[in-house]
Amino acid sequence: MQITLELSEDLAQKINGLEEKLPQALALGLDELASRPHEGFNGFVEVLEFLANLPSPEEVLVLRPSDSLQAQIDQLAETHKSGALTAQETLLWKQYEYLEHVVRMAKARAYLKIQGRADAA
Fold first, then answer.
1. d(Cα 85, Cα 76) in Å, to the nearest integer?
2. pTM for the full model?
3. Is there a domain that residue 20 lies in?
């Protein structure tokens, strides 16, 4: 397959003399991109690492998304409302919904633990 690309001057200078290695460089770059988590995954990591540290019930109840994660969710929610999600955005939206479900479950259990302590006192 033949592909025609428009490149920046910077990139054109970098590949000058390496034309025969472009298929290999493209394959390596595509493999690298495919191995990276989806955009926004860092927000999942924040929440999962927080929960993996076995926080107290009080800490769980005050858990909120970071500003960057909230911004990603807000942007995706706007796109979702307009019905214009791409396939990748739809997958990410479903992942956010599941993450929210997990956090709600953790908060519900944390609340019950706190209530149990209050009842025992």
1. 8
2. 0.62
3. no
